[in-house]
Write a structure and sequence with these properties.
The complex is a heterodimer of chains A (238) and B (328). Chain A is α/β, with parallel strands linked by helices and 238 residues long. Helix content of chain A is 37%, strand content 25%. Chain B has a domain of 217 residues. Chain B is 73% helix and 1% strand. Chain B contains 14 helices and 2 strands; from the N terminus they run H-H-H-H-H-E-H-H-H-H-E-H-H-H-H-H. In chain B, strands 1-2 form a two-stranded antiparallel sheet. Classes of the chains: A alpha/beta (238), B mainly alpha (328). The interface between A and B is medium-sized, with 38 and 26 residues.
């Protein structure tokens, strides 16, 4: 479904993403992990069209979307959330999500239905009339997900949506993503630091370090890979 | 029907009947209120909905006015056709400004400066534009004030009262419909966060262009009205930056981004300004500048105590529904 090949992005001297490749198959849940500053969010921004890569190709459902604008990427079926949440602060929760719901349609009722579905999936329907600015951080994270979901994406990019959640909230969110994946066939690529969520959700994991994919495989394989441990702990002496 | 709709219909009925009760002076005050309510609504589309600050909206008033007036005077083209030409001219001008700004990522204060620049050099251009009279002004034939001629928009003030009322109603309904639909949602999303809007599928450049074009087209009609109501146009007056500021005061005081803000603001400001005039002339004091000072103090107080405008405060106090609720 998504095939990222030899993609690189530099900011002046810093090579934030270095020749990275990854594949996400239809129906999968794949995690992208790595220490802070590894380039995970940059790679997401390249896929989602917020940034254009210097090199490489990003093929989604047969079209090379590298360098497309974010709204074009959204239009072909990729929804994304922002690690640093970006709610439409002067709009209500429902209105926020309806913006996503209007993708490809001018039908207000359809937008509203999509928004309702997304908000219910995240157990936020009860908060629909609150202004987005009044939400707590965990709820703003959920709002990010709901807004992306309302665009009816085939691939959902989640950037640290569980950071800051309590363990029970994490479990709720994990369950919600499982349902979306199983019942609606949404493919998910997520960046996550909360290993509890990664272990519970991801079928496969990529590990990014200094912009390079250093390991990939099942969660169990990756977490026992010495290169991964070294990248996190800074030493291989175990 | 809910409360707000009923209240609006009652207000409309009252406005339709109002000329029966007004003398010539009060009718002219009402025309001013409706004019500023409409043009404030037009400006609000750009700033209030889509977050693009224009400080040069007099540009569109002037261009609309001159276009329709010149076609009428030089080619005897009726204003109803002239207003279409006025809309085209203003939309083209708005598109040029929007393209320059949004293509090259000019936003915020710099965008506002760009709008001022366009208004100013258009003013200077028109001062040297002999075909429409240059600095000497451009005048429309005034014939038979008492005879109502709807086709040529010639007639007594009551004709212009109903025209202004029609504009205000059309502007209000248009904005109401806009806010309910995708256009309004996308505009507000852009205003609140462009990057998030893009990620949610909004073509930010295109929708910012739409905002400018719609606002310019609406303002063009205000210009046509202005030309046929006042019958004389001077570049120094119509394009002047003080005119642009005058336009934006009503929505700012009334409540930026709200439907009722421009209407309420226009009523309050016009009444305030006329009231000060009357009070001063009755008191027999003709001290120059006093009016401006009183007016300024009132504006300052309003902004200090109600930074989001007066309408949001009223709406909260009386528990009106939000102008835009998603599920109705």
């Amino acid at each position: 479904m998504l095939r990222v090949e030899n993609v690189s992005k530099s900011f002046q001297a810093l090579r934030a993403v270095d020749n990275a490749s990854l594949v996400v198959e239809r129906g999968e849940i794949v995690a992208l992990i790595g220490p802070n500053g590894a380039g995970k969010t940059t790679l997401f921004n390249l896929i989602a069209g917020a940034l254009a890569p210097n090199e490489g190709s990003i093929v989604f459902l047969g079209s090379d979307i590298a360098g497309w604008r974010a709204d074009q990427v959204c239009a072909v079926g990729i929804g994304r959330t922002f690690q640093i949440v970006k709610p439409f602060a002067d709009m209500t929760v429902l209105e926020n999500v309806m913006v996503g719901g209007f993708r490809g349609t001018t039908d207000r009722r359809l937008a509203s239905r999509r928004a309702e579905g997304a908000l219910r999936a995240l157990e936020m329907w009860g908060q629909r009339d609150r202004p987005a600015s009044a939400l707590t951080l965990p709820d703003r994270k959920k709002l990010e997900v709901a807004r992306a979901l309302a665009t009816e994406p085939r691939l959902l990019l989640l950037d640290e949506v569980m950071a800051g959640l309590r363990p029970t909230e994490t479990d709720h969110m994990v369950a919600a993503f499982r349902r979306l994946n199983a019942e609606h066939g949404v493919t998910i690529l997520l960046i996550e630091h909360v290993m509890r969520a990664v272990m519970a959700l991801a079928q496969r994991v990529y590990v990014l370090h200094h912009g390079v994919i250093i390991s990939s495989g099942t969660p169990a394989e990756v977490t026992s890979d010495p290169r991964v441990l070294e990248s996190y702990l800074g030493t291989a002496e175990l | 029907m809910n409360r707000s709709v009923v209240a609006l219909l009652v207000l409309l009925a009252a406005l339709l009947a109002l000329p029966l009760a007004l003398d010539r002076y009060l009718l002219s005050v009402m025309i001013l209120i409706l004019y500023f309510a409409y043009v404030g609504q037009a400006w609000n589309v750009m700033m209030g909905f889509a977050g693009q600050l224009s400080l040069g909206h007099a540009l569109f008033v002037g261009l609309g006015a001159y276009t329709a007036a010149a076609l009428f005077q030089h080619f005897a083209i009726v204003p109803w056709v002239g207003m279409l030409a006025a809309i085209v001219v203003c939309v083209v001008m708005g598109s040029i400004i929007g393209w320059l700004a949004f293509r090259f990522g000019i936003g915020g204060t710099y965008f506002a400066l760009l709008t001022i620049a366009f208004a100013e050099f258009t003013r200077i251009g028109f001062e040297h534009f002999g075909w429409v009279g240059g600095t000497g002004g451009f005048f429309l034939r005034v014939t038979q004030q008492d005879h109502v001629d709807v086709v040529h928009l010639r007639g007594p003030p009551i004709l212009f009262y109903y025209l202004a009322l029609a504009l205000a109603v059309i502007g209000f309904v248009l904005c109401w419909a806009m806010l309910r639909g995708r256009l309004g949602f996308y505009f507000r999303a852009i205003r609140d966060n462009e990057e998030a809007a893009r990620a949610a599928g909004v073509n930010v450049f295109r929708y910012k262009m739409y905002a400018v074009q719609i606002s310019a087209a609406m303002t063009a009609l205000a210009g046509v009205f202005f030309a046929f109501y006042y019958n004389n146009l001077f570049p120094e007056q119509i394009f002047h930056i003080s005119r642009s500021i005058e336009i934006i005061l009503a929505p700012i005081i009334g409540g930026i981004g709200t439907l009722f803000g421009p209407v309420l603001g226009a009523a309050l400001l016009t009444l305030l300004s006329e009231g000060i005039n009357q009070a001063l002339s009755m008191a027999g004091h003709e001290v120059p500048g006093v009016k401006q000072i009183l007016y300024g103090v009132a504006l300052g107080a309003a902004i200090m105590f109600m930074p989001n405008g007066i309408w949001p405060v009223i709406a909260r106090k009386f528990g009106f529904r939000r102008a835009v609720t998603a599920d109705d």
